[in-house]
Model the fold of this input.
Amino acid sequence: MAIAKKKFQIDGMHCGSCAIGIQMIFSNQNGIKNVSVSYEGKSSEIEYDDQKTDVEGIEKMISELGYKATPK
Done:
């Protein structure tokens, strides 16, 4: 298992509740080790097991929640 860390710009958040929702959902996803989402910064930092998910998988998960993620 190799832990990777990636920052993403997240577009489409309208309030702090959006950030909290993303963080709560991601904290329960397989392969996600740690997640921090900032509404003010329109960004997130995600630590993940790169053998269980990857940047494209994370982008897809965020997209399925109705937001757009762009790796920084």
Summary: Residues 16 and 69 are 17 Å apart (CA to CA). The chain has one domain: 3-71. The chain has a mean pLDDT of 95.
